[in-house]
Specification:
The structure holds 2 protein chains of 2 kinds.
Chain A: H1 2-10, H2 16-28, H3 35-44, H4 49-56, H5 69-80
Chain B: E1 4-13, H1 17-28, E2 33-37, E3 53-54, H2 65-75, H3 82-101, E4 116-124, E5 129-135, H4 141-155, E6 159-162, E7 164-171, E8 177-184, E9 189-200, H5 221-228, E10 233-234, E11 239-246, H6 256-259, E12 263-265, H7 273-276, H8 286-298, E13 310-313, H9 319-325, H10 329-337, E14 346-355, E15 359-360, E16 366-371, E17 374-384, E18 389-390, H11 402-424, H12 437-448, E19 453-454, H13 455-469, H14 476-493, E20 496-497, H15 507-531, H16 549-552, E21 554-559, E22 564-569
Parallel strand pairs in B: 1-2, 1-9, 2-6, 9-17, 15-18, 19-20
Antiparallel strand pairs in B: 3-5, 4-5, 7-8, 8-9, 10-21, 11-14, 12-13, 13-14, 16-17, 21-22
Helix pairs in contact in B: 1-4, 1-11, 2-3, 3-11, 5-15, 13-14, 13-15, 14-15
Classes of the chains: A mainly alpha, B alpha/beta.
Chain lengths: 81, 587
């Protein structure tokens, strides 16, 4: 599915830490996401690298507008992976 | 296959710090500039730079470009070109002030001037005492720089081609560069971007090693394209390593861990640094620690099922010290080594960090290559800047903070010289009839390959071979077999096969094309390292432990054609200063 290929490429980042975490997420979790969760994940990928790393390591919460259950689940999965 | 052609005054490949700084120079001069990037510009690897920009502003005490120049030449172990280094250090303050005027959020002193941080290797008065020279924006200098330059380029109407991958250089019969072929990932279409001047700012190729701090995008695309087009690669044996990257991941564990009392163990549980550096032990300098680790692994005292790493023990420090003084370390160890360092040691290996060599250029950013007896003939219309280029300001070893200085100063200088070149050379030259033929053949080969090699397998074999045979400490037997092995892997890389033949966002195709670039860099590195029979800067050989200025004070040039090596002299004459004669390097 081309949507998934696009998401895969958007997981290529400037920080190695994110490349590694997102590669694991793609492998282990991408297939099980609902459509709404996939969209929430795509929106999270729009964050700058440093912000996204801070979100993954729990130093930062997701940006405003991303308070929904889907984003919360994605962030929980990323933090646990 | 008809390939669509798009015309620009200038094409820039890569949207990190160097590419965007050059683009700005051109766009603000009114030229039509295309910037290609595999990822969104602010996600370039420049974002990972934390240290700062070295520039002798003198905001924290007396400083001078001449002292910065001395530090850079000494750091380079005298392999750096002194004209380019003088240019770098003299231009650095202006480049920083320009960036400040573009809105870069630098840290400030109470009096309003840009704050400068101390950094290893930077000194006052030719090595007398440390000086604070690094201009930073907290620990996010690279991030702030990318955002500043991106905003400024949007304002200047630079055309960004995001998620485009350049494939090959287009040259006229007389060698002039006329642009690149490129793949638009979203559609899978290939275009020819016809340019009057072309700049490569594609970053380093640290992904040739199994243990690398580099992001996945750092596949040396510019180096691969240059090598395939007959341009040599300079000084590729010189790679900077950091002693403690997490084994199997590459993520850095800060030196602060050893500073706080952490130490290294081999498989016998021995604190081996006591043998190599009885006084300093685990706090010896980076190269000493890296070399000791490599020796332990080579002699069979490595840990784990593959005996390929050592252990960094810090559980004796206690939870409080780890949490308070080493923030982030526990998360990194848990995430990337699957160990909690307050209970178990972290597996670590020397990890590659920065590529000193690259596409040979002069200090204007013009690419230079041997032609008709001239070792440094300009390749008209072709420029390179940043980590993919070799000016050469880092020589055999880069000084901390000089990577950002390099990409700012030479990004700007290249852009400026391109402006001049465009003014003196109006109009597009006609493209050769077969301009896109080479790219087409390469893509056809990949599409039609059957019973071929698996891209991931070949790439993994390349990385393991580079790590084991051409790592931080180099042994003659391993280098010799490494040359043969990497050549065998290179032949396999020429027969890669992809199962997915779709057009839209076909990441398998992109990764196969990236491997084509990586493998050229791997070959250049292995051949150049095997041939250089001395130890200088980051090139450290067991069989030739000393620097040899009589025979080896010269730059390596590797040519893809026949894996041929040539050499050219180091520029020992600066632009205006007196020559810094090679001396023994001690700190």
């Amino acid at each position: 599915m081309r949507d998934l290929d696009r998401i895969r490429w958007h997981c290529r980042r400037g920080l190695l830490e994110l490349d590694l975490v997102l590669a694991r997420f793609l492998e282990q979790r991408l297939g099980e996401l609902s459509e709404a969760e996939r969209h929430a994940f795509e929106r999270l990928l729009q964050c700058s690298d440093n912000d996204l790393w801070d979100i993954v390591t729990g130093r930062l919460e997701p940006p405003a507008g991303e308070e929904g259950a889907e984003a919360a689940r994605i962030v929980a999965l990323l933090r646990g992976i | 296959m008809a390939i669509a052609i798009r015309k620009f005054d200038a094409v820039i490949v890569g949207a990190g710090g160097a590419g965007m700084r050059a683009a700005l120079q051109l766009a603000e001069a009114g030229f039509r500039v295309a910037v290609l990037s595999k990822v969104f510009p602010t996600r370039s690897h420049t974002v990972a730079a934390q240290g700062g920009i070295g520039a002798a502003l003198g905001n924290m005490g007396e400083d001078s470009w001449l002292w910065h120049m001395y530090d850079t030449i000494k750091g380079s172990d005298y392999l750096g070109d002194q004209d380019a280094i003088e240019f770098l250090c003299r231009m650095a303050p202006q480049a920083v002030i320009e960036l400040e005027h573009f809105g870069m959020p630098f840290d400030r002193n109470d009096n309003g001037t840009v704050y400068q941080r101390p950094f290893g290797g930077h000194s006052q008065n030719f090595g007398e005492r440390p000086v604070q020279r690094s201009c930073c924006a907290a620990d996010r200098t690279g991030h702030a720089m990318l955002h500043t330059l991106y905003q400024r380029n949007v304002r200047a109407n630079t055309h960004f081609f995001v998620e485009w991958m350049a494939l090959d250089l287009v040259r006229a019969a007389d060698g002039q560069v006329l642009g690149v072929t490129a793949l638009e990932m979203e559609t899978g279409e290939v275009y020819l971007l016809h340019a009057r001047a072309t700049l490569f700012a594609t970053g380093g190729a640290g992904r040739i090693f199994a243990a690398s701090t580099n992001a996945f995008i750092n596949t040396g695309d510019g180096l691969g394209m240059a090598a395939r087009a007959g341009i040599p690669l300079e000084d590729m044996e010189f790679w900077q390593f950091h002693p403690t990257g997490v084994a199997g991941a590459g993520v850095l564990i800060t030196e602060g861990v050893r500073g706080e009392g952490g130490y290294l163990l081999n498989k016998n549980g021995e604190r081996f640094m006591e043998r190599y550096a009885p006084t300093m032990k685990d706090l010896a300098s980076r190269d000493v620690v890296s070399r000791a680790m490599a020796t332990e692994i080579k002699e069979g005292r490595g840990c784990g099922p593959e005996a390929d790493h050592v252990l960094l023990k810090l559980d004796h420090l206690g939870v409080e010290v780890v949490e308070k003084r080493l923030p982030g370390i526990r998360e990194i160890a848990k995430k990337f080594a699957n160990v909690d360092p307050v209970k178990e040691p972290i597996p670590v290996v020397p990890t590659v960090h920065y590529q000193m060599g690259g596409i040979p250029t002069n200090y204007h950013g013009e690419v230079v290559a041997p032609r008709a007896g001239d070792l440094e003939a300009v390749v008209p219309g072709f420029y390179a800047a940043g980590e993919c280029a070799c000016a050469s300001v880092h020589g055999a070893n880069r000084l901390g903070t000089n990577s950002l200085t390099d990409l700012l100063v030479f990004g700007r200088a290249s852009g400026e010289h391109m402006v001049q070149f465009l003014r003196e050379n109006p109009g597009h030259r006609e493209l050769p009839a077969d301009a896109a033929e080479y790219t087409r053949a390469r893509l056809d080969r990949l599409e039609n390959q059957r019973d071929g090699e698996n891209v991931y397998q070949v790439a993994a074999d390349m990385r393991r071979t580079m790590q084991a045979h051409c790592g931080v400490f180099r042994f003659p037997d391993l280098l010799a077999t490494g040359v043969t092995r990497i050549r065998e892997i290179s032949e396999r890389a020429a027969r890669t096969e992809i199962k997915d033949h779709s057009k839209v966002f076909n990441t398998a195709r992109v990764e196969a094309l990236e491997l084509d670039n990586l493998i050229e860099v791997a070959r250049a590195t292995m051949d150049s390292a095997e041939a250089r029979e001395e130890s200088r800067g980051a090139h450290d050989r067991e069989d030739f432990p000393k620097r040899d200025d009589v025979n080896w004070l010269k730059h390596t040039l590797w040519f893809k054609d026949g894996d041929r090596l040539e050499y050219k002299p180091v520029h020992l004459k600066p632009l205006t200063a007196a020559t810094f004669e090679p001396k023994v390097r001690t700190y």
